[in-house]
Design brief:
mainly alpha
């Protein structure tokens, strides 16, 4: 709602963002494979492949270099999630699916203060609940599941609302979206197979949202 010329800037930012991240990701993996053997990558201590690579390239100072890089990346990630996450609660409140107060804005800063407070409290609880790796395993499964549902919504809207205005083009539709759902589904199955303890818990957390959603819908009705 606050993006200027969203019909142009949203697809452009998504395309550039995904393109740059993909290029960096492929470049990093090229470096990993150039410095380490496949066996060394598979047996890297605590699965920290990047740290193992930097250790070969820079020696004992490697952990400090990686710690600094991770801190910079983490702050950048947190910045984006804080900005976008609170807006989700804000929109849910406007749809009657969350606390009404979360739909308000600070009159001076125009920021969803209450939604930010809720996000802050929940984040603190998650941080104190376990290790980062455990939280990541919980999140990856749930995030991929919602990505698949979002792409599935594209097919449903094309069928149920063919007259709806579509300011964005779905490039490669229907093959590319269907391929994404297929690949993401395979990853979900592999996660359930290889890390059932974490993925099942993540799935349970997602399913707990279903009765909450129904209660809010009932309250709204």
């Amino acid at each position: 709602g606050e993006v200027r010329n969203p019909k142009r800037n949203l697809p452009l930012s998504l395309g550039l963002g995904v393109g740059v991240v993909s290029a960096l990701y492929l470049a990093c993996n090229f470096v990993y494979l150039s410095v380490l053997t496949l066996g060394q990558i598979q047996t890297a201590p605590e699965d920290r492949v990047a740290t193992a690579v930097v250790a070969v390239m820079f020696g004992p100072v490697a952990p400090k270099i990686m710690a600094a890089a991770i801190m910079i990346a983490t702050f950048g990630c947190v910045h984006g999630l804080v900005l976008s996450g609170a807006r989700v609660y804000y929109t849910m409140a406007h749809d009657g699916l969350f606390f009404r107060r979360a739909g308000g804005l600070n009159p001076e800063t125009h920021a969803p203060d209450f939604a930010l407070y809720i996000q802050c409290g929940w984040t603190i609880l998650l941080t104190l609940s376990g290790q980062y790796g455990d939280l990541l395993d919980y999140v990856i499964f749930a995030v991929l599941l919602f990505y698949m549902l979002t792409i599935g919504g594209l097919f449903r809207l094309r069928r149920t609302r063919p007259e709806m205005e579509r300011p964005y083009r779905a490039i490669g539709y229907p093959v590319l979206p269907a391929l994404y759902i297929l690949v993401a589904g395979v990853i979900e199955v592999l996660l359930l197979w290889n890390k059932p303890a974490f993925t099942v818990r993540g799935l349970i957390l997602v399913l707990l949202g279903a009765p909450v959603y129904l209660l809010w819908r009932r309250k709204k009705g």
